[in-house]
């Protein structure tokens, strides 16, 4: 974060792998932490980024409750509060799954790695993050932990810790992804930004999804177009979609090579969001409609 006001908090930011030396060298000079309360305090490069110069920004969100459908992730919070549509997003969770697939590991439904787990993985950082557990304990004791102002020393440190490693992880992950995975990463990043941000015009005013690059269109090996589909669930039918103890929706997820998200916790409670290759998305739609008719 940055502002025009002097910073009283400082922290160390790991160097990128291209910089050489020990990335976690605490002998390096610390950088300031600025607390921003108005857009005018942000750097000019952030407000008006140049297409000629790469700008990588690490984002994290602690779950903002707008009394809409529960807590929202960063892209939803920006969209519903300020009308900001994120694009060119590199999601570390998506990148992690793609790297796992590249290295021959089978992807499981709802495969997920926590930020603490990502930091501990020696391929990316290989460090422990015990302070995160302290904050999680405080959140369980008081769900309003992040709403209090002014921010305490612990809150500032925890917020900075959640993003100061992201640029290092970004460089480590981008160096591992092949061209095919980089395209999937760009497409899924774009679709995730739309997911749950329900639009009345079928996302016509959103940035377009990256097309399949020419170098990937080879005979018999071109990736299939990826899409986002939103399926309306009639009132009273969501229970059939989910099934007893989630058995129905889990069975559908295991049968389709597509990502399926229910509304409720992070979106409209009467919708199902399906993301993936066109044929797999259509297959999931058919199976979900069948469950509604049972």
Automatic annotation (TrEMBL):
PROSITE patterns: KH_TYPE_1. It holds the Pfam family KH_1. Residues 225-293 form the K Homology domain. The keyword Metal-binding does not apply. SMART domains: KH. Gene3D superfamilies: K Homology domain, type 1 (3.30.1370.10), Ribonuclease H-like superfamily/Ribonuclease H (3.30.420.10). Residues 1-30 are annotated as: Disordered. GO terms for biological process: nucleobase-containing compound metabolic process. Keywords: RNA-binding. SUPFAM superfamilies: Eukaryotic type KH-domain (KH-domain type I), Ribonuclease H-like. GO terms for molecular function: 3'-5' exonuclease activity; RNA binding. It comes from the Eukaryota. This is Uncharacterized protein LOC111302964 isoform X4. It comes from Durio zibethinus. The gene is LOC111302964.
